[in-house]
Specification:
Layout (H helix, E strand, L loop, with lengths): L1 H27 L16 H15 L5 E6 L5 H16 L3 E6 L4 H14 L3 E4 L8 H9 L4 E4 L9 E7 L1 H15 L11 E6 L6 H20 L2 E2 L7 H4 L6 H15 L7 E4 L2 H13 L9 E2 L6 H9 L5 E3 L2 H17 L20 E4 L2 E3 L4 H6 L6 H5 L3
Parallel strand pairs: 1-2, 1-3, 3-4, 4-5, 5-11, 6-7, 6-8, 8-9
Antiparallel strand pairs: 10-12
């Protein structure tokens, strides 16, 4: 009887000890399976999401906002450039806002001020008139918003980080060399000459000065030795620059030149720095009665679709082609670098002084397009379709 009671008592003691041990283990957290602070084997959705976001921010735009300020929608080139950049940036995960200022400097300043207030992460600006933008550029600098000048250099401020453009002096040189070749200036006999009038770009645009400089490096020797004659006498930049790149002004000037200086002999060359100027000259020449037999050489710049159609029908001789897809890509890589606080690719650190500092730049190379290479350069490359050129207005 005693043995049975002792056995029952012993079993009770052992069972109680086991139960106490389990309870103590749970309370002290020594069980690695049940420890609430150890989640190494459990999925952490919030942590994984944060890691994914960090990876996206490291490799893409990560939702950062890029603002693009364009001068006008009336020039197809600015629409194309902004859309090319937007497509590239959005593919990288950036948010993109584009504003067009209608060629109104005050409106552009207000739009840029709005970008500053939005605290965008980077700003791309094609300035209309730098004088109107120095104050808002300073605001952007004070807000630590990087500014990249695109195509046109923002002047008179140290807020500009970088400049993406084409070699604008090279554009002028190409125009001059192509005019000289197509006019046969080097083959003229003694006493022979060609007449020429100049239509240069907006004085507020730094590019205009560089285009003029490149052009006149080629043209001036011919003017000096008499193989070129400008009967209006207007050859300086100040006398040939056209405010706001106005096609209407170019047409009016050409009409006045034809009526005032070319009634007894014909105008042989319209040296223009922009396709829009070429259109204005074309209209003035047609109204003055010029036809295919006496049609002058007309230069241009930008290879707009209308200019391409005119080149093919013979009313514009050539245009300088600047593949804006390439420029947009270069600008996007600059944006990536600026946002990541790394150095972008630069190929010019000397030419572009904006009166405050020399702005590091990446310059793309331009080309000349005429009727002989237009299909290969523009259609076969996918820049335009045949239909876009034929239907251009």
């Amino acid at each position: 009887m005693k043995k049975k009671r002792f056995g029952a008592w012993l079993c009770t003691i052992i069972l109680a000890t086991m139960l106490f041990g389990c309870s103590a283990s749970t309370k002290t957290g020594n069980d690695p399976v049940n420890t609430p602070d150890d989640t190494s084997d459990q999925p952490d959705t919030a942590a994984d999401s944060k890691a994914d976001d960090t990876q996206a921010n490291d490799t893409e735009g990560g939702g950062k906002k890029i603002a693009i300020s364009m001068p006008t929608q009336s020039v197809q080139r600015w629409i194309d450039d902004s859309e090319n950049m937007k497509k590239e940036l959005e593919a990288k995960g950036y948010e993109v806002e584009i504003q067009f200022a209608g060629d109104n400097p005050q409106q552009q300043a207000a739009q840029i001020q709005s970008f500053v207030e939005q605290k965008v992460d980077c700003m791309v600006v094609v300035p209309i008139d730098s004088k109107e933008l120095t104050a808002v550029a300073e605001d952007a600098k004070n807000a630590d918003i990087p500014v990249i000048s695109y195509d046109r250099l923002l002047m008179d401020t140290d807020a500009v980080y970088y400049y993406a453009s084409f070699d604008n002096k090279g554009v002028g040189t190409l125009i001059g060399k192509t005019i000289a070749q197509k006019a046969g200036l080097d083959d003229l006999a003694d006493g022979e000459y060609k007449t020429i009038e100049f239509f240069m770009g907006c004085p507020d645009d730094n590019n205009s000065h560089r285009i003029y400089d490149g052009l006149m490096e080629v043209m001036q020797p011919y003017l000096d030795d008499g193989r070129l004659v400008c009967k209006s006498g207007r050859t300086s930049f100040e006398d040939t620059c056209i405010s706001r790149w106005s096609q209407e002004t170019a047409k009016e000037w050409c009409k006045n030149y034809l009526a005032g200086y070319y009634t007894d002999e014909e105008l042989d060359i319209c040296a223009t720095a922009f396709d829009g100027f070429a259109y204005g000259c074309k209209e003035a020449l047609q109204e003055a009665g010029y036809i295919a037999d006496n049609w002058p050489i007309i230069s241009g710049q930008d290879c707009e679709a209308v200019a391409c159609r005119n080149i093919l029908d013979g009313t514009q001789t050539f245009s300088v082609y600047k593949d804006t897809r390439v420029l947009a890509q270069k600008c996007v890589t600059m944006i990536d670098s600026v946002v990541a606080e790394t150095e972008p690719e630069i190929n010019d650190t000397e030419q572009y002084h904006n009166h405050v500092l020399t702005v590091p730049a990446y310059l793309c190379n331009p080309d000349v397009v005429d009727k002989d290479n237009l299909k290969e350069a523009l259609i076969d490359s996918g820049y335009y379709t045949q239909e876009q050129i034929e239907q251009a207005e």
